[in-house]
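Case study: Enoyl-CoA hydratase-related protein.
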Amino acid sequence: MITTDAETRARALYDALAAGNADALADLLDPDVVVEPTAGLPGDLGEVRHGRDAAIQGFWWAIGRRYAARAEPERFLPTDDGALVVLGRYRGTARDGGGELDAAFAHVLRFAADGRIAALTQYTDSTAWGEALPAPDRPRAGEREMRRLSYTVDSHGVATIRLVRPKAGNAIDPRFTEDLDEATFRAAEDPAVRAVLLCADGPRFCVGGDLAVLGELEPAALPVVLRQMIDTYHQALERLTEIDAPVVAAVRGAAAGGGLGLLHVSDVVVIDEAASLAIGYAALGLVADGLNTWYLPRTVGLRRAQELFLLNRPFSGAEAVAWGLATEAVPADDVDERGRALAERLAAGPTRAFGRMKRLLRESHNTALPVQARAEITAMTDAAADEDAAAGVPAFRAGQRPVFHGR
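Here is what the predicted structure looks like once written out:
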């Protein structure tokens, strides 16, 4: 049954998996095959498997115990180095009362000299796999483990989302986007959160996409992985614009590409005056994500945005302030302290009123004047019914500092 025809071999793999044929799988796989699943799959499904038995029993049969689903290949794309990229979808349901599973995948297959499959690298939407599980087994939003970020809430009501991958420049990879989705969900759902602080370990805030990860992908797999990452990343960024709590970014060292999205969705940005910022997509032959094409023309103007995108011009923290992309520039050693001080100050403010301000300002970009006028009336009237207004107005009249509770 051994053949050097990669596509024939791959099709036989999917047929054997669909039929649950262990003997056929054993014949198709190299004894030392390595299966590298997508990180973040439920339970231990995301662990790398070494060897034929570990691949069959520890990965594919483990999937079968949790899901009644199959991998449906749609396209087979050979690469110059003899590998094969398979694009398709996982379709089915989770067992024991779970929900539907429908997730795109890209598999990169590599072959031994005798034609057997020597390696399979899987890229898929791990969140979709988790959400399909029945409620008792499902990794619930707000409780998922984070590895690229940390999340804490202090006694002031400041939720700190810290990027904790300094050796990689806090670069964005699939796990990063899933962690940011988790952290922003927690902040949005916790009424104790009255401000959010975005900060980072190490000398660089966020260098953008993780080229070490993206550069290892086969060309056909790159669009699939980027789509999954960007969908999740944009969802998290938009969540930060929608919550009432003001968002403060403390940016030190460098920020680039999609990492600039964290600045765009922040309400206050404290930046290292010597920071180095850049768009960077043109150098990679890519376009843009992180909401850069929406925010930058509105913030710095069309001509400047064209310069930043097309000529890939780097700029400094001081320029970011001058152009309206950042609020204030301070020495690098003062960035974190200043950012935290501002977050604590905002956390002591009228949180729900802040939320209404944020929405009015954001929507003003695309709203006609009469519509905006009516929106202001509604927002002001609603704010006047809040407890914070009941405390703030008389305190202001008496020349006292009001105590707000975010209600």
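For the exam, be able to explain this: Residues 222-242 form the longest helix (21 residues).
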